[in-house]
Amino acid sequence: MNCQLCQENLDAYLGGGLPAGMMTQVESHLKTCDSCKRLSEIQLLANRVIRVEKETEVDPFLVTRVLANIERLDAAGFGNAPLGAGILRPALITLSLAAAVLFGIMLGNLSRPAGNAGKIPLELALINDASLESVDILSLE
Ligand SMILES: [Zn+2]
Q1: What tens digit of pLDDT does each residue of 19-76 get?
Q2: Residue 7 CA to ligand 1 centre (angstroms)
Q3: pTM to 2 decimal places
Q4: Ligand 1 center to residue 51 CA distance, Å?
Q5: Would you say residue 80 has pLDDT above 60?
Q6: Closest by Cα among 82, 48, 86 to 40
Q7: Distance between Cα 42 and ligand 1 center (Å)
Q8: Which residues surround ligand 1, an ion (CB under 5 A)?
Q9: Residue 136 has what pLDDT?
């Protein structure tokens, strides 16, 4: 028997599900081959761990305890929003929007030249009232 055939039949050998002839062949190979013997030991250990895990009993009171704690937290009001949060959140949003608008206005004012704050704008100064014809002059003619 070679190593590949032995390793393919190792699971069935450990479970006792091999025909008698195969059983003795795998057994004799395991006595002579160290790597297959190590593999079978690992497989045996894994099977033992799986068996122990399957046998672990579920605590029947775990569900009861968890549900009782959840109900206790619900009764204590845990998870509900604090009283002020319903009012506080819209107020904070409104305040932040107002601050953003004010900041925009301030930013717009910064771009204006600061030198002629009190002066008449150039566009208005170009309009010369004196050159406009008065209605009185027209009526006299
Ligand atoms: Zn081998």
Answers
A1: 989 899 999 999 999 999 999 999 999 988 998 888 877 777 888 899 999 998 888 7
A2: 7
A3: 0.40
A4: 26
A5: no
A6: 48
A7: 14
A8: 3, 6, 33, 36
A9: 72
